[in-house]
Write a structure and sequence with these properties.
α1 packs antiparallel against α11, α2 crosses α4 and α4 packs across α11. By secondary structure, the chain is of the alpha/beta class. A 6-stranded mixed β-sheet has the order 1-2-5-3-6-14. It has a 4-stranded antiparallel β-sheet with strand order 9-10-8-11. It has 2 domains: 270 residues, Aminopeptidase (3-Layer(aba) Sandwich), CATH 3.40.630; 124 residues, Alpha-Beta Plaits, CATH 3.30.70.360. It contains 11 helices and 15 strands.
């Protein structure tokens, strides 16, 4: 029976294959929404099948299939490893210093779109699954792989759908291989919601705007000038959440280096993302609509939030403005003392020889769907955050190798390989 140390050595002896796998994934253009997911899904299926792992493809939408795979036994600890293979569009190719889909490998980095978000994390998960399967390791439990191809455009055909269909049932923990940093385990996040503000006016000939009509765009602009008052609303955190909250504020302050930015963790953020209004240049607009990206912290009081929205409109001293919001997603977290948190933390600190902080994410991700099912869920994955959703994305080879080691050792600890 193969032991933990032997598995670790086996991984070290095959590090070049892991780097090449990451590069091969990058070379497959899987932009979403403008690209196709078929090629990369087929690649993942073949990789797992060639390793002797049974693969199931399921889909709510044929253009965005999901992959399910499992190794181990029905008894014992059950861990899900989740990740997405779709990437944001490369954008203006002239802004790239290298081919975004070249998968180039330097002495220290792998280059291309999706290296950090999140094909390096996917490669680590696939590589570790293959290693465990082909080594004949005896698992006291099982590893369930959830690979989705719809995350970057909202994810309704991906992780959300998998959880709704019951594919996460019975899991004891979930590891999402999203990019974090070597220093951080993300154990919670804010909830993402949409606020819609609408202003109604009265149309007239554009040449008479100062005298006739009621300009809906100007009315809504007065309301939007007060959007900052929503950012004063904070969340409520339990005593058990204070350590992670403190870690999160420290990370935000250090990483983002903007005065007051640490408040992004435990306060509402409201980003006016799009505005649409008016029909024609020579007409006074009688309608205007704004869509606001709202991120809600853990413990938000919806009554207070709704009150502030109404007051924001009232203080603008305009008539004919209303709002719409369907608050569905809220700040969510995994207890800091959960087995998955502390086990991965110990292994990450052993590998990196640094302090690794469990913390909350100021954005949102697929992790919340597992937490809604009361599955302790964390995010930890290799990344260089500067290039994510931007140009010249890359990942350090050392990060990829060490992340795979941390995944392997964490699985060994949770599934009884000593």
């Amino acid at each position: 029976m193969i032991c933990r140390k032997e598995l670790y050595n086996l991984l070290e002896n095959n590090e070049k294959k892991l780097v090449r796998l990451t590069s091969d994934l990058i070379k497959i253009n899987s932009e979403n929404p403008i690209g196709s997911q078929r090629e990369i899904i087929d690649f993942v299926k073949k990789y797992l099948s060639d390793a002797g792992i049974e693969v199931q493809e399921v889909a709510a939408n044929a253009d965005h299939p999901c992959i399910l795979a499992e190794i181990g036994s029905d008894k014992g600890f059950s861990i899900i490893i989740n990740g997405h293979v779709d990437v944001v569009p490369a954008g203006d190719l002239s802004q790239w210093e290298f081919d975004p889909f070249g998968g180039n490998i330097t002495d220290t980095q792998i280059l291309g779109r999706g290296t950090s978000d999140m094909k390096a994390g996917i490669a680590c998960a696939l590589f570790v699954m293959k290693l465990l399967k082909q080594s004949g390791a005896q698992l006291d439990g099982n590893i369930r792989l959830h690979i989705v191809s719809d995350e970057e455009t909202g994810g309704k055909y991906g992780t959300k759908w998998l959880c709704q269909q019951g594919y996460a049932k019975g899991a004891d923990a979930c590891l999402v291989a999203e990019p974090t940093s070597r220093y951080t385990i993300e154990i919670g996040q804010k909830g993402s919601n949409e606020l819609i503000l609408r202003a109604y006016g009265k149309t007239a000939h554009g040449s008479l705007e100062n005298y006739k009509g009621d300009n809906a765009i100007l009315k809504l602009s007065k309301v939007l000038q007060n959007i900052g008052r929503l950012r004063r609303i904070g969340g409520k955190y339990t005593v058990d959440q204070q350590e992670a909250l403190s870690n999160s504020k420290y990370i935000a302050k250090t990483k983002l280096n903007v005065p007051g930015v640490e408040n992004v963790i435990d306060h509402v953020t409201a980003n006016v993302a799009t505005i649409n209004g008016g029909n024609k240049l020579n007409m006074v607009p009688d309608f205007c609509e704004a869509h606001v990206d709202m991120r809600l912290p853990i413990g938000i009081d919806l009554r207070q939030l709704e009150h502030e929205i109404r007051e924001m409109i009232k203080e603008s001293c305009v008539e004919g403005v209303e709002y719409e919001a369907d608050w569905k997603n809220f700040g969510n977290s995994t207890p800091i003392d959960s087995q998955i948190v502390q086990t991965l933390r110990k292994n990450a600190e052993d590998i990196w020889k640094i302090e690794v902080l469990p913390a909350y994410q100021w954005a949102s991700s697929d992790a919340n769907y597992y937490r809604k099912l009361n599955i302790p869920t964390i995010q930890y994955g290799p990344s260089n955050t500067e290039g994510i959703h931007s140009y010249n994305e890359n990942v350090d080879i050392e990060d990829v190798i060490n992340a795979s080691k941390i995944y392997l050792l964490t699985i060994c600890d949770l599934l009884g390989i000593s």
